[in-house]
Please model this.
Amino acid sequence: MPKHRGLNLTKFLAAVEQTLLEDYFSSRIEEEQLPERICMNEQHVQQFLEDPTNTAAAGLIIEEFQRVNDLGKGGASTLHRIAKRNGITQNPGETPTTLAMRMFLEHSAQFEEAYTLYAWDNCGSPMSMYSLPSKGFQLTPQRLERFSGEITQWFEGLGKGNQAEVKFYEQEGDTVILVTHGSYVRVLAQWEGNEVKVHAYRPATEDILRYSPAKEVLWIKAPLEKDRKKYVETFAGEVLEGLCPKLSG
Model:
């Protein structure tokens, strides 16, 4: 995962336009739970996040706020480059964090691409490098689907949830792959009135792969050796369709 920039909620909320915050919470909270007039200022956001009944939702919201904050604060140049390339204009006086939130809500594919490139440059995991021949390399929907399916089954078998989101991007002739998957379930005990209630949630983890056909090298940024080994074997077997031997060890 990328090294997250510190999320100061007060500064983050001040850097995002109020209307976008309201749009964000409208997309995350059931309509019947919303007030007649949404006003998600800092006080209301804090109250929502600290409510014990919102533990699961609060975890997701903080993760998404963190990603938007990372891109707005640390990846502004990448954000602007992707926005310009896709014809997404920046409004007068708009902060990079507001642009990041607007792209998150209205241009999710472009946001994810910008975030993936940011994450590659700022990933805190060690980078491993593997030599993989590129003869016959060709990205097809069928190969990508097989890669995604194999990786999803892998993490499900490890008890890390049954979902893994795999996204592919082209960057300077290379293929960049972002794999977002669950980690092990964590539990949080909280007082609710006179009782202790236990809430469970599953944090998300991001791994990144980058393959250069020109250099015939696959780079992987993932913290666990067993995951890196699986990525190499699956990429070789499903994306390169066995054109190079599966690696072990």
Q: What stands out?
A: The radius of gyration is 20 Å. The chain has two domains: 9-122, 127-239. The chain has a mean pLDDT of 78.
